[in-house]
Amino acid sequence: MLFGSQTRGGVKSRFDRVTSRRELLKGSLLAGGALLLGLEESAGQSSATSRHSISVEEPFARGRKLGVLEFANEAPVPMDRAFGAELDCRLYTDLSKLTPKNAVTPVRDFYIRTAASQLLSEANLSCVKVEGLVRHTKSLNVDELMKQAKPMGLHIMECAGNDRAVHFGLMSLAEWTGVPLAPIVESADPAQNASRVLVAGFDKYANTSRTSLPGASWIFTLDELKSAGAFLATEMNREPLSTDHGAPIRLVVPGWYGCACIKWVNEIRAVADDAAATSQMQEYAARTMQTDVPQLARDYQPAIVDPAAIPIRIEKWVIDGKIVYRVVGISWGGRRPAEALEIRFNPEEDYAPVASFQPNRTGSWSFWTQSWRPRQTGSYMIRLQVKTKGERTRRMDIGYYLRIVDITEI
Ligand SMILES: Nc1nc2c(c(=O)[nH]1)N[C@H]1C(S)=C(S)[C@@H](COP(=O)(O)O)O[C@H]1N2
Ligand SMILES: [Mo]
Q1: pTM (two decimals)
Q2: Is 134:123 a contact under the CB 8 Å cutoff?
Q3: Distance CA 255, CA 182 (A)
Q4: Atom of ligand 1 lying closest to residue 203 CA
């Protein structure tokens, strides 16, 4: 299924034929001694040419950048520009420009999965109700929430529908301000049988969507809200939330897919353990890797983002008269940042460690780079493996984040 989409559309690997390991090693000779060493270690071979270790970045200091390659088999789509209305609106963030210094997505480029309803002015969003199975029903005044709001740090948000067709642009990073949600629920004194919390937002639209169901709401356990550090967000990048990103109040559940991060929040409801899964949860069942479409919220696995990594840009350099490529990428997801990365340039190769990888613990992306000297021209399928103790990597395991590049000059 997923692998099918990788090879559909005439991607021809020059490694389709059976090739010997030695040939493959030559086929993707990696510049940078440390890297080459890693490759050979995993291949169980040694070579006379690679016993010196040099810094991965050092050669680029004396090189010249010729340009940046496009990824192959990714149809052109508008980037950093919103198009479409309401549920069919999209803005894809151009991740290819990311650098460690410019890692935070400016609000105007932050991805949009659903734009504000044209009926939003009809909604009363001046307060958020806390109700359902609670002893003290509450009405949280939005101005009050804004006053209580504190810095909540850097968090990446990724749409569960993020994929290669949109250059993985349904993913962005912002610095958030808000109010933790779990204490708000607790202060309403949930009844004994209120084991779950539904968060709902305004979701009536003027237009019927071609692809999405209206009605955004998600059900969590209180423990999930606590352990994720879920908060009602009031600001993004120290600016009041924009309308399209859920103003005045949206939910942010760090480490969960964007579909759980309800915008235009108007209701927080304590519900019983046997509460039905919401239509939004059901719509996103496959994309959040549920095994079927759960009827009950309690049968729904937490919609968390597993550790993942992608290349975001392939730079072409000339160093000492030779063409060298530099693969720049990011890693994100998981309860803790990845401990190590491995990269592979074609299915028949072994994975090699990404020597430059350093986990970032600030909530930002972890950046990595890999220098690469393909020995042959042709099409390469770049795939990574993320190593984090005790974490599943479901999407990485099925090649979901694979990217293809056509090398025409070596
Ligand atoms: N009310 C409401 N909230 C919503 C949605 C929606 O359609 N309606 N879409 C969800 C999905 S699928 C995603 S990925 C995120 C996207 O948030 P963003 O558009 O601010 O990036 O919002 C979530 N919150
Ligand atoms: Mo999404």
Answers
A1: 0.87
A2: no
A3: 16
A4: 1
